[in-house]
Amino acid sequence: MMRRSTATTTLFFLLTLTIAAQPARFATLSHDFGEMGQNEARSFVFLVTNTGADVLRLTPPRASCGCTAVLLSQSELQPGDSARIEVEFRSGPAMLGPVNKSVQVGHLVNGKERELATLRIQADVVGIVRYDPGMIEFRSVLGKEFRSTVRLISRSEQPIRITEITPALMMYADSSDGNTYHVDHVVAMPFEDVRVKPSAEEIPPGGEVELECVFTLRNKGQLNGAIRVALDRSEIRIPVVGVILRSGP
Q1: What is the pLDDT of residues 56-68, one digit of tens each?
Q2: What residue ranges in 51-185 does DSSP mark as E strands?
Q3: pLDDT (tens digit, 9 = 90+) per residue, 45-56?
């Protein structure tokens, strides 16, 4: 019993030292922007306070990508002082769905940078147009055409014009016999044997337009990429994943 009590006391002492050694306290380490539109910017201010006995020297925060900007109000904090870290997130024209970004915050200890905290932001980017299904996915054989219909559904109260449709697809063609995929026989090439035709050039308010997509399959291998649909105020990218075999089962 004495041995267990001693171990518990030692662990509590070490945890107390670890907590006491923290040089800063953040009011929060994460923020959820909720639903956002495409091409929209929102910001949130994280507050950090120097809880140590020495001056806290913050290094410039680093965002995980270019869509996130960070502004630090001051880099040197006396004991008890606080600084504001303003994080601005801007959703891109092709960004859709859940988005998670991070900001690394560091500080100087004896002239060397050490990690202090990771700030996290998230959002659910909702476009003015959604597409159904969420992906064109197929498995077929050489010499056939694969057809898929994608519905573009408007969330807007205004008509939305389709300005351009551009397939951006890569074919990883496998020249080997049989249906087994052999990496050493693969040649990557742009895939251009696709036709995409909209049922109309404009999506009515709250309405929809159908895209008829026809893929002509001339090579065994794997097809990856997206169909980019440019709109007058944004764009969407419909993912495409296909597997083409030499023969069926």
Answers
A1: 999 999 999 889 9
A2: 56-57, 62-63, 68-72, 76-77, 82-90, 97-109, 112-126, 129-132, 136-141, 145-154, 160-174
A3: 999 999 999 999
